[in-house]
Amino acid sequence: MDEQLTVPDPVLGVVPGPHRDFRMPSVVEEHTRAWLLTPPAERTVPDPRPSSTVMLLRDGSGGPEVFVLRRASSMAFAPGMVAFPGGGVDPRDADPDVPWAGPRPTEWARRLGADEAVARELVIAAAREVFEECGVLLAGPSDREVVADLGDPSWETERQRLLDRRQSLGELLTRRGLVLRSDLLSLRAHWRTPVCEPRRYDTRFFAARLPQGQRALHLTTEAERVDWAVPDELLAAQTEGTEILLPPTQVMVEELALVEDLDAWLAAAPSAVPAVQPWPVEHDGALWMRCPLGPEEG
Predict the structure, then answer these.
(1) Using an 8 Å Cβ cutoff, are 22 and 247 in contact?
(2) What's the alpha-carbon Rg for the chain, to the nearest Å?
(3) Which candidate in 61, 107, 206, 218 could, as Cys together with 103 as Cys, close a disulfide (CB 3.0–4.6 Å)?
(4) Start and end of every Nudix hydrolase domain (predicted)?
């Protein structure tokens, strides 16, 4: 960890206490430096958009494997970087009539530190995004079952109807006689995009085991490729410079690299998930993302 520093800036505020610094990815260095050189009173800080992302997991020969996407270089946000399936909350996710199993939105509100309506949207967005982006459906005909076979072509039709907004996830589940299995999601982290980014997200990170019988596929145009990755190998690829992970992705992968029993880890979700807000700083002639750490991590 670096020496303790603060950032005395009227927009950035002061970032005291324990922290961890991550090198700024080269693809965002130019606009970050321009933002830092802008007089504080003239800087633009967009409001972050609520979003959900899901670490899909399965058991591998040496421990858990995580499904990752390498974002297309044409993407406006995080081009070329390794990410998990996910995206922003959509107006359709506000549907109060989604068939629901598992912890109720009131319980998710407590876990997420949000009001009930926002909590419902974040959980629904998580389930919708993994179905849209990789064809995995966290739903079943009852609170003890999950859809095991999505090979029928009609499921691809359902996915396309979600993508072009002809239906909501709630409408799909209701018509199919299914319930959203919110108990399959485990809340793991909460990160906000740095203030220097032109697109910002207020993102909850969930984890879920790949349902038995289902397959995660390369279905999104937002990714150049997808893969089941071994956490240690993914971290080594970042060190070698062949992959780029943003700080929240790196921290999550580092945590996964320590997991020995996937089911036990999923069950032992943290009781509180404070938001982490990285800040852009420059020291030692380079740009960094400075991430405050909670007391238990410092």
Answers:
(1) yes
(2) 19
(3) 107
(4) 47-252
Q: How far is CA 176 from CA 142, 147, 164, 262, in A?
A: 12, 11, 19, 30
Residue 31 CA to residue 195 CA, distance in Å, equals 12
Crossing angle for the helix pair 153-163 and 116-134, nearest 10 degrees? 130
Amino acid at 228: W
Amino acid symbol at 36: L
Sorted by where each starts, the structural domains of the chain and their CATH numbers stand as: 44-282 (3.90.79.10)
Name residue 206's beta-bridge partners: 54, 187
Q: Is 95 helix (H, G, I), strand (E, B) or coil?
A: coil
How far apart are the C-alpha atoms of 172 and 230, rounded to whole Å? 33
- DSSP SS3 for 30: helix
User: Which 3-state string (H, E, C) describes 193-239?
Assistant: CCCCCCCCEEEEEEEEECCCCCCCCCCCCCEEEEEEECHHHHHHHHH
Which parts of 78-166 fold into alpha helices (H)?
105-112, 116-134, 153-163
pTM value is 0.89
> What residues form DSSP beta bridges with 291?
20
**Res 221: pLDDT:** 66
